[in-house]
Design brief:
The protein has 129 residues and is an alpha+beta fold. It has one domain. It is built from three helices and six strands. A hairpin with a 5-residue loop joins strand 1 and strand 2.
Length: 129
Amino acid sequence: MIDQIVSVMSLTPTQNEFQFDIFPDGTIGDIFSLSTNFAIATPDEAITALKEGDGARYFDLLKKWHIADSRIEKVKGSVFAKELPVGNMSITFSVFPQWFKVRWKAGNLQSAKGYVLIKAGEYEHAGLT
């Protein structure tokens, strides 16, 4: 498990965090997670990261370990940004993957998880050019 954690962290030099349960009696639960935040600010950055950057290498590792299958490639198609008129201004509504999690239960790999960031607001450059 330690070697796997090192493998994930070497591919994701952005933001990583460990997650685990601490029970009232002070013991730690048997589920341990490594959550990675790719620190993506715009949909353009998301597309680049997922196609050829840290995200692409991360996805390859998840597939190699059989904790994600080819469906994870559909995440790349989930990137979306649209400028919407609101009164006398416009806002950008965007959706893109941001966090992924590798989990272990009693030291054994479990299926990976992904989380999507949804943002709305004024942006100088929202992406998807």
